[in-house]
Design a protein that fits this description.
The protein is built from 12 helices and 8 strands. The protein is α/β, with parallel strands linked by helices. Strand 3, helix 5 and strand 4 form a beta-alpha-beta unit. The longest helix is centred in the N-terminal third of the chain and has 27 residues.
Length: 337
């Protein structure tokens, strides 16, 4: 059986310039999973109020994190996919073997699109496709947005492989231990009064009311991480970030920025160890938000993580060998291998 594997994510603009950011945001914001109002009204709000301003503010943010080789999210996603491919190659399952596995990345918005990847698999006669949205905890958006785009692409291409969709891996033992080890390796010392904050992407409360189990999965992940660290679950502050719109009360809280600012106002002068374990790869929400918003909220407007020892930034698992091994294990488990 010829197997194609898609490591999926939300996506990125082609570049950091306003027009490139606008093109990406237009596709992202018009996704039915993102739409927050009746579609005609939402379209008017997006095109007349959100995009004219946001393309410039987001462009400035992207410019701060952009790499010479391009988008950090795309670059790191490709590096991790290459490492997962090497793990299959080592088992004798390279792309040109008798039992081939082809690992590629695909994005809900922007390029490479899921349709592009599936078209390649179809042309090469792949009869089984595994879709792994690389969000450990699943949510209506973005996880279901990836799955929706995947199914639309299959229909568009009239492609009917055996399809394996992995919804989440929030309780995978190796994912949990990798997060705990990253926190430990960053120097987290609860016995010395360090506060551990794990910040997750927020979701609209309307999704939660509609049955989204994202918060429950997050809570379970954090309990497992606490156990792995040998601390009480209450020693982890669970918070949320990246709300959209002008009314944060409509989103899952507490918000990370609010909690960090409160700790500062309380006069807490110890260390905060901060990580976003729901982000498998660095992106705007980590590379910009953490140094330019989260850290200053706690340590003062003049500070970024490289200028203060009071805010310890634990990076995502990223394109490491260990993370590639986790991805392969998640796929193997879904395939019963």
């Amino acid at each position: 059986m010829k197997t194609g594997i898609i490591l999926a994510n939300t996506g990125s603009p082609e570049g950091p310039e306003p027009d490139q950011v606008e093109a990406y945001l237009r596709q992202f914001l018009m996704d039915p999973r993102i739409c927050q109002l009746p579609r005609p009204l939402w379209k008017y709000v997006v095109f007349h109020h959100i995009l004219p301003k946001r393309k410039y503010t987001s462009s400035e943010r992207y410019k701060r994190i952009w790499r010479a080789e391009g988008s950090p999210l795309i670059n790191d996603q490709e590096k991790r996919a290459d490492k997962v491919q090497l793990l299959f190659d080592a088992q004798g399952r390279s792309r040109d073997s008798a039992d081939p596995v082809d690992v590629r990345i695909g994005m809900s918005y922007g390029t490479p699109s899921l349709e592009e990847v599936l078209s390649t698999f179809k042309d090469n006669g792949y009869d089984r496709v595994v879709l792994l949205p690389t969000y450990p905890q699943s949510a209506f958006s973005p996880t279901q947005a990836v799955i929706d785009a995947y199914r639309r692409a299959l229909d568009s291409l009239e492609y009917r492989p055996k399809s394996v969709v992995i919804d989440n891996y929030h309780d995978n033992a190796h994912y949990i231990s990798a997060v705990a080890d990253a926190i430990r390796d960053a120097g987290y010392r609860p016995e010395e009064g360090d506060r551990l904050m794990l910040s997750m992407h927020s979701i609209p409360l309307k999704d939660k009311r509609a049955g989204d189990t994202y918060v429950e999965q997050t809570t379970e992940s954090f309990a497992l991480i606490a156990c792995e660290l040998g601390i009480d679950r209450d020693d982890i502050t669970m918070s949320f970030q990246s709300v959209f719109g002008h009314d944060p009360s409509k989103w899952q809280g507490p918000l990370s920025l609010d909690v960090l600012a409160q700790w500062r106002e309380e006069g807490f002068d110890g260390r905060v160890v901060f990580m976003c374990p729901g982000f498998a790869i660095d992106c705007l929400e980590t590379l910009y938000d953490i140094p330019y918003e989260m850290c200053p909220a706690f340590a003062g407007s003049e500070n970024t993580p490289d200028k203060t020892d009071r805010f310890v930034w634990v990076k995502t698992l990223g394109p490491t060998d260990r993370h590639a091994t986790i991805m392969k294990e998640v796929v193997d488990a879904a395939l019963g291998e």
